Amino acid sequence: MKLYHAPASPFVRKVMVLLHEAGAVDRVTLSPASGSPLDPGTLPVDRNPLGKIPALERPDGPTLYDSRVITRYLDDLLDARLYPAAPHLWDTLTIEATGDGIAEAAVLMRYEAHVRPEATRSPAWIEAQWSKIARSLAALEDRWLSHLAGPLDMGQIAVGCALGYLDFRHADRDWRATHPALAAWHAAFADRPAMRATAPDA
Ligand SMILES: N[C@@H](CCC(=O)N[C@@H](CS)C(=O)NCC(=O)O)C(=O)O
C-alpha cells in the first residue's frame, strides 16, 4: 500500500500512529506529498479529488481518503481493535471527530496566516477558528477525560495528534495553561512509542 504522507500533518499522523500501534509500519510505503489549497504542489489530486492527505492506495479497491476512512479500513484489515463495539463506538467516534475538528481549525489558521496573500488575511477569521478549538479543548477537559484514560482507541489517537499539532504550529496559544488535566493526560500519551516515532519534528 502507498500512503501519501507529510510528517507535519496531524491527519497523516493518525494513520501512522495506528500503523505503529498495530506493528504494521512495513505494510505501507510513504510517498512524500506537500502543497496547499492555493498550490496543490505534489498533493495527490489525481488520487483524491479534494487534493488532501492522507490518501491510501490499496490493492483491493480505489484509493481511500480522509483519515477517518483510512483508519477504519486499516483497523479492519489489521484487526487493530481501535474502534470498540457499540455503544462505546459512538463515544470513540465523537472524540475522534473532536480531535479532527481541532486539527482542521488549526490547519486553517495556519493557511490563513501563511498561505493566503497577506492583503486578504483576516485576524477575526483566525480568532473564530481558535474559538472552535477553545470550545473543543474545554469539552475534552470537562466531559471526556475518563474516556481518554481508558483503553487505547482512535479517539485518543486523534486527540493526541491534534494536541501535538497545536504544540507544533500554535505553541504561542499555550493551551496547557487553561486545560491542566488534559495537559497531564497528553504528557503521558505523547510518551507512547508510537507517538514519539511520529512527532512532527521527530
Ligand atoms: N478531513 C481530512 C483533512 C485532511 C487535510 O486537511 N490535510 C491537509 C494536510 S494537514 C491537506 O492535505 N491540505 C491540503 C489542502 O487543503 O488543499 C482528513 O481527515 O484526512
What would you note in describing this structure?
With 202 residues, this protein is of the alpha+beta class. The chain contains 8 helices and 4 strands. It has a 4-stranded mixed beta sheet, covered by helices on one side. Helix 1 links the parallel strand 1 and strand 2. Helix 1 packs parallel to helix 2, helix 3 packs antiparallel against helix 4 and helix 3 packs parallel to helix 6. The protein is globular, with a radius of gyration of 17 Å. The two termini are 23 Å apart. 35% of the residues are buried. The model has no long low-confidence stretch (mean pLDDT 97). The site of glutathione (GSH) has 15 residues, from helix 2 and helix 3.
Itemize the secondary structure elements and their pairings.
Elements (H helix, E strand, L loop, with lengths): L1 E4 L4 H12 L7 E4 L22 E4 L2 E5 L1 H12 L9 H27 L8 H21 L1 H4 L5 H16 L10 H10 L3 H5 L5
Parallel strand pairs: 1-2
Antiparallel strand pairs: 1-3, 3-4
The structure holds glutathione.
